[in-house]
Amino acid sequence: MDPERECSRLWRAWRTVHEMGYEISEEEVDISLDDFRRHFCDSEGRPQRKNLTFKANPSEKMLKQHAAPPGQPANVGTIWVEFSPEPNIGIKHMRTFAHTIVTENYHTGIFVCQHNPTAAAMKIVPTVLPSIIEVFEEADLLVNITKHELVPSHHLLSRDEKKKLLERYRLKETQLPRIQSADPVARYMGLKRGMVVKIVRKSETSGRYASYRLCM
Question: Which HAMAP family match (predicted)?
Answer without folding.
Answer: RNApol_Rpo5_RPB5
